Automatic annotation (TrEMBL), chain A:
GO terms for molecular function: 2 iron, 2 sulfur cluster binding; isoquinoline 1-oxidoreductase activity; metal ion binding. This is Isoquinoline 1-oxidoreductase alpha subunit. Its EC number is 1.3.99.16. InterPro entries: 2Fe-2S-bd, 2Fe-2S-bd_dom_sf, 2Fe-2S_ferredoxin-like_sf, 2Fe-2S_ferredoxin-type, 2Fe2S_fd_BS, Beta-grasp_dom_sf, Diverse_Oxidoreductases. It holds the Pfam family Fer2_2. Keywords: 2Fe-2S, Iron, Iron-sulfur, Metal-binding, Oxidoreductase. SUPFAM superfamilies: 2Fe-2S ferredoxin-like (SSF54292), CO dehydrogenase ISP C-domain like (SSF47741). It comes from Sphingobium boeckii. Residues 1-77 form the 2Fe-2S ferredoxin-type domain. The keyword RNA-binding does not apply. Gene3D superfamilies: 3.10.20.30, [2Fe-2S]-binding domain. The keyword Iron applies.
TrEMBL record, chain B:
Pfam families: MoCoBD_1, MoCoBD_2. PROSITE patterns: TAT. The keyword Oxidoreductase applies. Keywords: Oxidoreductase. GO terms for molecular function: isoquinoline 1-oxidoreductase activity. The keyword Ubl conjugation does not apply. Its EC number is 1.3.99.16. It comes from the Bacteria. This is Isoquinoline 1-oxidoreductase beta subunit. PANTHER family: ALDEHYDE DEHYDROGENASE, BLR6219 PROTEIN. Gene3D superfamilies: Aldehyde oxidase/xanthine dehydrogenase, a/b hammerhead (3.90.1170.50), Aldehyde oxidase/xanthine dehydrogenase, molybdopterin binding domain (3.30.365.10). Residues 204-291 form the Aldehyde oxidase/xanthine dehydrogenase a/b hammerhead domain.
Length: 158, 729
């Protein structure tokens, strides 16, 4: 089946089975490898993208359900003000360890800040609890989100 | 599968040459195997300085999130007095002749590279100084270096490193053993919190990881491996899978032997991995399960219990007369402890990309030790080492899983069957959970006797584990002279062995992650029995200055256990956690534990509360660590400590266990093998004890003590002693 998608502001066409999850369209058809495969069943968040501004697990979203929705991935989120602030905050305190989960973390954080610009601890926990970090960078994820939300003095690294 | 460390500290060798396009290319090898011919222009030299001053350093070891690609380059750049902003780090390919051992494991990258890396940087600086001295015709000791520049103060002249790099390339390199190194107070990069060299690419989602490798015309492979460890393929009908959408090839791969290499199965290749993986449901396979029968976790637990009951273990360590001393003790206590099998659950599932053509193979491997992977491919697939090019990719988590190279051999086997077609093998999460090399479960019986002052007079441990012929299998073992051996007058460690058909391997802080729980949990019981607390018991055991185990060697962090270093971290954590004034209230308590492994010393205190509904909340953790005199990159060092601590908490609190029946693993994904999430993110306070020893690594040693500190805290809060993992109250 032919599908035309809007990804990071660009129109892209693919010819794939209707059940193919968006993640595999991004990674294997379109060469957008920033969204990661972790579990394939919606429980780790490594594949998180925005679908019309909502954080969604792309591993569990069939391409046929995407329709005309606007998709933003980690490759495009830096073009939004919230994404840009988050990426800077992520770098300032160097959140990443292995880095594999971080695209998904940033996408979930961006959706959180779009909905709740000044999140409290509980908001962060509920907004981010779908994202696993096997390296357990949670402390810095929390700090980076607060920094991006302008709630803390940024801690700068070299 | 652990790297051989005996060759690591041998004399290194340096050669200098002209960089293609001008500049200095410095190569060095540890150990010496092949020197690059002098004067040759070198691509990808270890350290190179271009005429514009840009410095390129090869990252020799795999980056798994431990920050080594950054910290080894920091060591070189600091002695070189480089401007860190002008340094870029490029991941090296596998090349043992040039780089020596290239692995990420056993927390060894820091201790084994600490002096070699610095010496290389210092040697480069020495050559630049000599080149500048000749250029200016001034004595060398009048020239200073800073931030990539050479400065002659008297005449107010200065040169960039790039300006003299080509001239330096013509000089003879200094002797690496005698080249002068900085004193710690002169460090300008080492010791500074430094961002990971790839962090920018990570947060932008750029291709970095093994799974991100993309080659023109590449096909994606899924692999149907045996459903149980030991199962053998009797017959296969591949026709329906071949007809599935997107599928290009389906074929059988013969197993080469053990689980560590090519495992028999069916490869499905498609234009998209999702098509390949979906087509697995169409395979009609008949497996012979005979050899898998009987390998069940419940059976092993029952066998272990019988072995402990029989109490006829083989001696592993003995001093004095424990039986007599036990009989004469004022008080005695006996307890059993056990812990389950565990998976690694790296977030990036196992994968590997390979292209075979004209008898040569090129591989993109997310492997913690790709060098043995090449040897495996040579052995099992007959592709000689000189016909293999192996690229090291960034790795989405190691934790010991990727010390094995089974996925690498598997990808190579698939690629070899399809010459000219690039192939990316990827495992599903379910494959990854079921085809692991598990942290072995283990069962222990302890007994101890104390005198009237609560001092230990006798101590025994009987360990029921996996092995044969009077020896435990690797990673189902325990360290020689494990604490408190040689510190208690009458002590016996004995072991009993069971044969097993499930692959086992190293999980972050191998053996220690389990032993700490048992030994430090039981020692807490002994302390309570003697009317005291665990810190004071450990301090008493370590009261006399001595080294248990290997004597110190020059030029590397000590391997043996130094009682004085143990005391210092115990005292430190007691101080920062205000242990003496710890609150004692119902349902809330603090626990302490200490552990030494991977050349590092950690003492930790956990503050926990247990609610009426038995739910456990960890409020805070204090950790005091000694990994030598220098923390190379404080930012990543703290990240490793925090990460290790949360990793240990997840093992204990998230119900983590791997169980199996007739060789088939019962867990499949993060839904039934749960990892920690952001809701369990307690405050962690870290204090470093800077002892006067060479630095050692931080990938592992902070993990083991947190589990017994937690279970000891639960005891303090509730009076319930946790003797089995994962915790179920
Ligand atoms: S890969 Fe989609 S949630 Fe894990
Ligand atoms: S940084 Fe490794 S999984 Fe999050």
């Amino acid at each position: 089946m032919n599908y035309t998608l809007t990804i990071n502001g660009k129109r892209r066409s693919v010819d794939v089975a209707p059940e193919m999850p968006l993640l595999w369209v991004l990674r294997n058809e379109l060469g957008l490898v920033g969204s990661k495969f972790g579990c394939g069943m919606g429980v780790c968040g490594a594949c998180t993208v925005h679908v019309d501004g909502q954080a969604q697990r792309s591993c569990s979203l069939p391409i046929s359900d995407v329709g005309t929705a606007k998709i933003v991935t980690i490759e495009g989120v830096g073009a939004t003000p919230v994404g840009q602030r988050l990426q800077k905050a992520w770098l300032d305190i160097d959140v990443a360890q292995c880095g594999y989960c971080q695209a998904g973390q940033i996408m979930s954080a961006a959706a959180l800040l779009q909905q709740t610009p000044k999140p409290g601890h509980e908001d962060i926990v509920s907004g981010m609890s779908g994202n696993i970090c096997r390296c357990a960078t949670y402390d810095r994820i929390q700090k980076a989100i607060l920094n991006a939300a302008g709630k803390m003095e940024a801690v700068d690294a070299a | 599968m652990q790297p051989d460390t005996t060759v690591l500290t041998r004399r290194a060798f340096l050669s200098a040459s002209l960089l293609a396009g001008g500049g200095l290319a410095l190569d060095f090898t540890i150990p010496v195997q092949a020197a690059v011919p002098a004067g040759a222009s070198v691509l990808g030299a270890f350290v190179s300085i271009a005429p514009n001053g840009a410095i390129t350093i090869m990252g020799k070891n795999p980056e798994i999130g431990q920050g080594i690609k950054t910290s080894l380059a920091m060591m070189i750049a600091d002695e070189l007095d480089a401007d860190w902003a002008q340094v870029s780090v490029v991941q090296a390919d596998v090349d043992p002749d040039r780089y020596g051992p290239q692995f990420a494991g056993a927390s060894l990258s820091t201790p084994t590279n600490w002096l070699p890396m610095r010496r290389a940087g210092a040697a480069a600086r020495d050559m630049l100084l000599r080149a500048a001295a000749t250029r200016w015709n001034v004595p060398i000791d009048q020239i200073k270096t800073a931030k990539g520049r050479l400065i002659h103060g008297a005449t107010k002249r200065s040169l960039g490193y790039g300006d003299v790099a080509s001239a330096a390339a013509m000089l003879t390199p200094p002797d690496l053993q005698t080249v002068k190194l900085k004193s710690p107070d002169q460090f300008s990069i080492i010791g500074q919190p430094t961002r990971g060299v790839d962090s920018g690419r990570v947060i932008r989602g750029e291709p970095l990881f093994g799974i991100d490798t993309r080659l023109t015309g590449m096909l994606y492979a899924a692999y149907e491996a045996p459903p149980a460890h030991g199962a053998k393929l009797r017959s296969a009908d591949l026709s329906a899978a071949k007809a599935a959408p997107g599928v290009k090839h389906v074929f059988q791969i013969q197993g080469a032997g053990g689980p560590g290499g090519v495992v028999e199965g069916i490869a499905i290749l498609a234009t998209n991995w999702w098509y390949a993986n979906e087509a697995r449901a169409k395979l009609v396979l008949d497996w012979d399960m005979t050899a898998a029968k009987g390998h069940s976790s419940e059976d092993y637990a029952a066998q272990a219990k019988a072995l402990l009951d029989a109490n006829a273990g083989i001696d592993f360590e003995r001093s004095g007369d424990p039986a007599k001393a036990m009989a004469g003790a004022a008080k005695r206590i006996k307890s059993r402890y056990d812990y389950p099998f565990l998976a690694h659950a790296t977030l990036e599932p196992q994968n590997c990309t390979a292209l075979y053509q004209n008898g040569q193979i090129e591989i993109w491997a997310p492997s913690q030790q790709p060098q043995p992977g090449r040897e495996l491919i040579a052995k099992e697939l007959g592709i000689p080492l000189d016909k293999q090019i192996v690229h090291i990719t960034r790795i989405g988590g190691g934790f010991g899983r990727r010390l094995n190279n089974d996925y690498m051999a598997q990808a190579a086997a698939i690629a070899k069957a399809l010459p000219g077609v690039p192939v990316q093998l990827l495992w599903s999460r379910e494959d990854d959970t079921r085809r692991d090399f598990y942290r072995p479960g283990g069962w222990h019986e302890f007994e101890a006797g104390v005198d009237g002052d609560g001092k230990i007079v006798a101590f025994t441990n009987h360990f029921a584990t996996f092995g044969a012929d009077g020896k435990s299998q690797r990673f189902a073992n325990m360290a020689e002279r494990h604490f408190p051996a040689r510190l208690v007058p009458n002590l016996a460690f004995t072991q009993s062995y069971m044969k097993i058909g499930i692959p086992m391997g190293a999980l972050r802080a191998p053996t220690s992650n389990a032993m700490a729980f048992c030994f430090q949990g039981f020692l807490d019981e002994v302390a309570v029995l003697g009317g005291r607390d665990l810190p004071s018991l450990i301090l008493e055991l370590c009261a006399e200055d001595k080294i248990v185990g290997d004597a110190d060697a020059p030029d590397i962090a000590p391997k043996g256990f130094h009682t004085a270093r143990a005391r210092a971290v115990v005292e430190k954590v007691v101080e920062i956690s205000k242990w003496a004034e710890r609150p004692k209230e119902k349902g809330r308590g603090r626990g302490f534990a200490f552990y030494f492994c991977h050349q590092g010393y950690f003492a930790e205190v956990v503050d926990v509360s247990v609610a009426d509904d038995k739910s456990i909340t960890v409020h805070k953790i204090w950790a005091a660590g000694d990994v030598g005199r220098q923390i190379v990159n404080p930012m990543m060092a703290e990240a490793q400590v925090r990460g290790s601590i949360l990793d240990g908490l997840a093992q204990a609190l998230e119900g983590q266990k791997i169980t199996f029946t007739d060789g088939a693993i019962e867990q499949s994904n993060f839904s039934d093998f749960r990892l920690g999430r952001i809701d369990r993110n307690p405050d962690v306070e870290i204090a470093w004890v800077l002892s006067d020893f060479h630095p050692s690594g931080l990938g592992e040693p902070a993990l083991p003590p947190v589990i017994p500190a937690l279970t000891n805290a639960i005891y303090a809060a509730t009076g319930t002693r946790v003797r089995s993992l994962p915790i179920e109250l």
